[in-house]
Amino acid sequence: MTAPRLEIDLSKIRHNAQVLVKKLADRGIGVSGVTKAMLGNPLFANTLLSAGIRGLADSRVEDIENMRKAGVDGQMELIRSPMLSQAARVVKSANISLNTELETIAALSAAAGAQNCVHGILLMVELGDLREGIMPSDLEDMVRRTLAFPNIRLDGIGTNLACQNGVVPDARNMGELSALADAIDATFDRTFPVVSGGNSANLNWALGEGKKGRINNLRLGEAILLGCEPLHRQPLDGLYADAFVLVAEVIECKTKPSQPTGTIGQTAFGAAKSAANSGPIRQALLAIGHADTDPTGLAPIHQSLKVLGASSDHLILDTQDQTCPIGSEVAFSLNYSALIHAMASPFVTKQYHQNSASRGSIAAA
């Protein structure tokens, strides 16, 4: 078989999506399925739709265009602020986009007018993570100005937490978002239908005790893909954590010293790591590296193997008591960073299948 390859179990992904859709629906929260890690792959997109997810969300207009061309039927949401240079493409392919700048909304309005359509907007609010967002004190004026644009429909507000500075979604910031939604409803004498609380990092809050206020949407990617929450990377009850397996081929296996010899400078990717002197070790070299994935996010499924490091094109393992013949394959689980890099690499073959019984188990409820 071709290596390196990413083995992708769509049945486990569908299961994860179905479980999360049901659990969140019980709390009055809908799910937008984030397709960006999968580069908008139509097989993945249709898997999410078949699991009961109503809308798809992506950060790249190119991914949304590819899903449209493939005939994927569903509401499409651009979840990174649109580039001015892509306004016409955004309006043509996406039903909704997340915005923070009046200049960009003006460009979307003009593009929607030229295309004789209406484009939906969610205004993103800054609640502490310091990525995108309108300051809360500026929100009322931003809503007023947005409502004045022709061919623009203001669907509501949203926020994003945990991605930049790790700010935890909790009762305080979710309560603040709910209060802002109530305030603009009262000020403008209408009910804006969407209050989007954030991403997979919101799940501990969303599935916990307590009222959820006005929050009625989450944008989920990592939890569906990897079966964990991003704040502490802990498995989520009832979900598969092994829908993805990365497989690489052994191209060298030799006994070598455990420490380098000579004067040490920087490696190809920064400062060298110090190695403990444990005498000669059996070292395997695999045909995969930084050009293909994030090696720091890989964990050998065979737990006696240990990742020692990586360069652009090589991954180095301490095989300990295991034999790794030339041409054999080693399987790895991945974190989110390793997954998105592997998906983006043209050198990693993507192999989709439907076989949830192949390996792994559901996290205990």
TrEMBL record:
<protein>
    <recommendedName>
        <fullName>Alanine racemase N-terminal domain-containing protein</fullName>
    </recommendedName>
</protein>
<dbReference type="GO" id="GO:0005829">
    <property type="term" value="C:cytosol"/>
</dbReference>
<feature type="domain" description="Alanine racemase N-terminal">
    <location>
        <begin position="8"/>
        <end position="224"/>
    </location>
</feature>
<dbReference type="InterPro" id="IPR000821">
    <property type="entry name" value="Ala_racemase"/>
</dbReference>
<dbReference type="InterPro" id="IPR001608">
    <property type="entry name" value="Ala_racemase_N"/>
</dbReference>
<keyword id="KW-0663">Pyridoxal phosphate</keyword>
<dbReference type="GO" id="GO:0008784">
    <property type="term" value="F:alanine racemase activity"/>
</dbReference>
<dbReference type="GO" id="GO:0030170">
    <property type="term" value="F:pyridoxal phosphate binding"/>
</dbReference>
<dbReference type="Pfam" id="PF01168">
    <property type="entry name" value="Ala_racemase_N"/>
</dbReference>
<keyword id="KW-0413">Isomerase</keyword>
<dbReference type="InterPro" id="IPR029066">
    <property type="entry name" value="PLP-binding_barrel"/>
</dbReference>
